[in-house]
């Protein structure tokens, strides 16, 4: 079998870059950086004597300290010409000018950070942070087997299997030869392979160069769906070892692997879906933010021509930036706005080193309100769901990203996350190998942790090996596969509507609050039935401008299905809840009988902020096979004007929790309790709906409350531990056992964790990667 078609083949001369190389000199002293538009971790590092700890995004060039950064911009010029020229003039280089986010990937002198940050067209500057993976029975446990029964012999499925739906897997690669990825004819369902994980190697001196700008050349070739060899790994080595790390193949097989060929059947969900291998993590599971953004760009620009409807991001960066400015969050949001369902892992930071549960640890891009953020459950080795529970390692909300506005006011996101949970503990799936398949050719994880390959009954033969992994990065592709099934059942759904369907039909687990489990555990059977009750022309009607708030969403002759499912002999009630505006729980039949403006993917509502995006496209070019409105060239986000967000008839459930818990303690009310109260009739049915935009949100003629979040922070009950991410915020005041910071109030006896500090480890890049994949 041959390697799937490698993309990005057009060659650029590397001699231009090589000529720009400068000698690397000794470490220099710290240089004061004061602008609040420079990310806190970058600013803190730059202002530390000796520039410690060592980080992957800094290097000395010609005696001057330089950093790899992402420059978030706000400009009407899609080419960002003036900003690019300024970077080069100050001794830096520009490599990417992205489509998914108005931003540049650049190398700049530390001394130039303040000057660049002070430009009016710069929103913020963040370091090019490391990204890492968050390190059947599955079909039965997720409810997928109820809609994907096997035909005799197990070679194909009836019902729904994701056929015709493309899923992009941004990870460490996919072992395309593995049996899990073959179709009924023995051909690989991995249709395209692109490699960004080695892009730094493709640039001269791994991108540590001064005075060059190749961003527009790359941008022009990509926007025309042309290809460049700048990021191409030669076909022979990639064919020999398609996934040296092993994480991406496992993730892809959870989303879409067909494991019928042996016992145990370790199949995934969308067993007929088409897969797109977008490699952004290297052979040790580590990547760079810049390469993840380039991978997202690639998916966005090919989504319509290849019918890529779902993108899975089982990775994260420990960013403390608000979703409003975080580069990966912005890019993921752009993908959603372009019509792609984006699924992200919540992260594996649910416990600290002492084994205590920590809240506020959801990583980027899981902290973005538009993506489907997935936590992990332990199904305890059975398909029965009554004993399932959220794993200890699964990251909890609320999100804690922040930014400082020009006025000096600090904004903390404080959004409810995760959105859903799915099986993610000790999940059996594919084992990636080299072409030979011997034990010595197994992937890095399997060789390093042999216990992961102990799967009772597995044949472990060539291209049929299995391994076990745990983590929210394993739970996320369960939801990605479920989304593909839902879109096969109803191709007309928008990404926010897919998210609402999955949340509404989820099963609340017996223990755990919305900060632990969102609206509950994935229920594919219920989601398919609800999707089938809705119109199939929703996306086209929205694009044509004929879909108005309150318009009918039900398909002809359809009614909403009974809100419960029978799974593995047990009847489970749906949550009948969805998250809206980041801090509100909503319910009611009107959510799905009427068009809700929040289902428009170009609209984002989070607390008091509403954003609207505009997408520009490449002009139709028949000679290149490019149709009109097919290939985005820029996605620009602006504050939305005043407009409806929810219609009359939607039920607001804030009072369901606030009635007994009071304040933000409602965040810790068990979800099953909220469900029972909602079923009993508690809540407010809107008569006029919500209107938002221009900095305010109103409902029923009054200002809408902050939902479950109080003011800029939140109050939690004694015994909880809250993490602020990388750096504990400045200005903490300790008095009489209380810790107070920027509106963030912590009750007596609490512990505030500094979270994770990512630093370079020359000896072993895995030393800073959590080991949650080993399971609980």
Structural summary, described in words:
- This protein has 20 helices and 41 strands.
- The protein folds into 2 domains: 98 residues, Peptidase S8 propeptide/proteinase inhibitor I9 (Alpha-Beta Plaits, 2-Layer Sandwich); 491 residues, Peptidase S8/S53 domain (Rossmann fold, 3-Layer(aba) Sandwich).
- With 776 residues, it is an alpha/beta fold.
- Helix 10 runs parallel beside helix 11.
- The N terminus is likely disordered.
- The strands form 11 sheets. Strands 1, 8, 9, 10, 12, 14, 16, 17 and 20 form a 9-stranded mixed beta sheet that branches. Strands 2, 3, 4, 5 and 6 form a 5-stranded antiparallel beta sheet that branches. A 4-stranded antiparallel beta sheet has the order 25-26-31-32.
- The longest helix has 18 residues.
| Tally of separate domains | 2
What is the CA-based Rg, rounded?
24 Å
**Remind me, CATH topology of the largest domain?**
Rossmann fold
Report the mean per-residue pLDDT as an integer. Answer: 80
Unreliable stretches: 1-30, 149-158, 228-237, 710-718, 725-769
- What is the CATH domain class of the largest domain? Alpha Beta
Principal-axes shape call:
globular
How many separate helices?
A: 20
For the biggest sheet, the summary is: 9 strands, mixed
Considering DSSP H and I runs of 4 or more, what fraction of the residues is helical?
A: 10-25%
Q: Note the gap between the termini.
A: 38 Å
- Number-wise, the strands total 41
Structural class: alpha/beta
Percent in strands: 15-25%
The CATH architecture designation of the largest domain is 3-Layer(aba) Sandwich
CATH superfamily of the largest domain: Peptidase S8/S53 domain
């Amino acid at each position: 079998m041959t390697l799937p078609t490698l993309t990005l083949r057009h060659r650029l001369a590397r001699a231009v870059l090589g000529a720009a190389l400068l000698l690397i000199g000794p470490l220099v002293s710290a240089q004061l950086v004061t602008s609040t538009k420079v990310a806190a971790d970058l600013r803190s590092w730059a202002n530390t004597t000796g520039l410690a700890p060592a980080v992957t995004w800094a290097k000395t060039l010609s005696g001057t300290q330089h950093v790899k950064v992402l420059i978030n911009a706000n400009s009407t010029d899609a080419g960002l010409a003036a900003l690019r020229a300024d970077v080069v003039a100050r001794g830096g280089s520009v490599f990417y000018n992205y489509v998914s986010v108005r931003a540049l990937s650049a190398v700049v002198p530390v001394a130039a950070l303040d000057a660049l940050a002070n430009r009016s067209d710069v929103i913020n500057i963040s370091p090019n942070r490391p990204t890492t993976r968050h390190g059947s029975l599955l079909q039965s446990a997720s409810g997928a087997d109820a809609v994907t029964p096997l035909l005799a012999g197990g070679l194909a499925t009836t019902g729904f299997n994701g056929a015709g739906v493309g899923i992009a897997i941004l990870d460490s690669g996919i072992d395309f030869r593995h049996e899990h990825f073959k179709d009924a004819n023995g051909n690989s369902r991995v249709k395209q392979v692109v490699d960004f994980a080695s892009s730094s190697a493709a640039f001269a001196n791994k991108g540590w160069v001064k005075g060059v700008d190749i961003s527009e050349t790359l941008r022009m070739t990509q926007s025309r769906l042309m290809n460049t060899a700048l990021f191409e790994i030669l076909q022979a080595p990639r064919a020999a070892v398609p996934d040296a790390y092993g994480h991406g193949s496992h993730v892809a097989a959870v989303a879409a692997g067909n494991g019928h060929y042996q016992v145990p059947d370790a199949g995934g969900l969308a067993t007929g879906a088409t897969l797109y291998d977008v490699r952004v993590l290297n052979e040790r599971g580590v990547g760079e933010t810049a390469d993840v953004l380039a991978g997202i760009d690639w998916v966005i620009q090919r989504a319509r021509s290849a019918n890529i409807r779902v993108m899975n991001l089982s990775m994260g960066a420990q960013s403390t930036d608000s979703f409003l400015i975080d580069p990966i969050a912005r890019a993921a949001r752009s993908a959603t706005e372009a019509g792609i369902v984006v699924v992200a892992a919540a992260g594996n930071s649910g416990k600290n080193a002492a084994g205590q549960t920590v809240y506020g640890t959801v990583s980027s891009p899981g902290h973005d309100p538009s993506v489907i953020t997935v936590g992990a459950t332990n199904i305890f080795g059975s398909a029965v769901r009554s004993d399932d529970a959220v794993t200890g390692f699964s990251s909890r909300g609320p999100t804690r990203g922040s930014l400082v506005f020009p006025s000096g006011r600090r904004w903390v996101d404080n959004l409810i996350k995760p959105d859903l949970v799915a099986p993610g503990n000790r999940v059996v799936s594919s084992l990636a190998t080299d072409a030979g398949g011997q034990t010595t050719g197994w992937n890095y994880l399997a060789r390093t942790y042999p216990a992961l390959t102990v799967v009772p009954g597995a044949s472990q033969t060539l291209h049929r090996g299995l391994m076990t992994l745990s983590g929210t990065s394993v739970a996320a592709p369960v939801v990605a596969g479920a989304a593909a099934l839902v879109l096969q059942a109803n191709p007309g759904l928008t990404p926010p509507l897919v998210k609402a369907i999955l949340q509404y039909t989820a099963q609340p687990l017996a223990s755990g609050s919305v900060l632990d489990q969102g609206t509950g555990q994935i229920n594919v059977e219920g989601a398919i039935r609800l999707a089938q009750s809705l119109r199939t022309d929703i996306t086209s009607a929205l694009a044509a401008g004929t879909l108005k708030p309150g318009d009918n969403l039900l398909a002809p002759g359809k009614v909403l299905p009974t809100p419960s499912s029978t799974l593995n002999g047990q009847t489970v009630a749906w949550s009948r809840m969805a998250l809206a505006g980041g801090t509100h729980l909503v319910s009611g039949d009107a959510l799905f009988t009427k068009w809700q403006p929040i289902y428009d993917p170009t609209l984002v509502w989070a607390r008091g902020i509403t954003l609207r995006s505009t997408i520009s496209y490449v002009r139709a070019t028949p000679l290149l096979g490019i149709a009109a409105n097919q290939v985005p060239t820029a996605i620009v986000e602006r504050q939305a004007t005043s407009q409806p967000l929810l219609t009359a008839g939607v039920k607001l459930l804030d009072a369901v929790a606030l009635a007994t818990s009071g304040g933000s303690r409602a965040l810790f009310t068990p979800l099953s309790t909220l469900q029972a109260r909602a079923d009993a009739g508690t809540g407010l049915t809107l008569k006029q709906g919500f209107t938002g935009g221009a900095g305010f949100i109103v409902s029923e003629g009054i200002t809408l409350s902050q939902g479950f979040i109080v003011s800029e922070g939140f109050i939690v009950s004694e015994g909880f531990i809250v993490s602020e991410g990388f750096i504990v915020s400045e200005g903490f005041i300790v008095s009489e056992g209380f810790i107070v910071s920027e509106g963030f109030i912590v009750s007596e006896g609490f512990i505030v964790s500094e979270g994770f500090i990512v630093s370079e480890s020359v000896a072993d890049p895995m030393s800073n990667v959590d080991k949650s994949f080993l399971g609980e």
